[in-house]
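G., the chain you wanted modeled:
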Amino acid sequence: MEVGESTEEATIRELKEETNLDVPASALSLIGIYGDPSRDKRRHTISAVYLAKLPKDAKPKAGDDVKAVVRVDITDKNILKPENFFADHLTILKDYRDRKIAGEEKGSVRGDLGEGGDFSRSICSSSYHVE
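Predicted structure as tokens:
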């Protein structure tokens, strides 16, 4: 996050830098704030995590500091293992999945997992580093 930037602005900028996608603020909804001091062993980091509702024809491309952009089945137990994720990113995905299953997402977001459970949305976190 840059000085003077809102969390939404940082998320939009990071999505552009890391996936080459232009996402309007209206496509974002806050999933949660993650700030457990032990979540990142390198330093205390706080993340504002947003769901970005993307058009079905969106074609993200890895850019900036991203190695690859992949879509995963959020119900696949072979993928959802701690060793496949950094810090608490698995916790964030599980929180999203659990909210979705419980129907807590508002409006048309409910049911986006579709048949077979495709995770067809992207999550980007804007991190704040506490010195």
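The chain has one domain: 7-129.

Shout if anything looks off.
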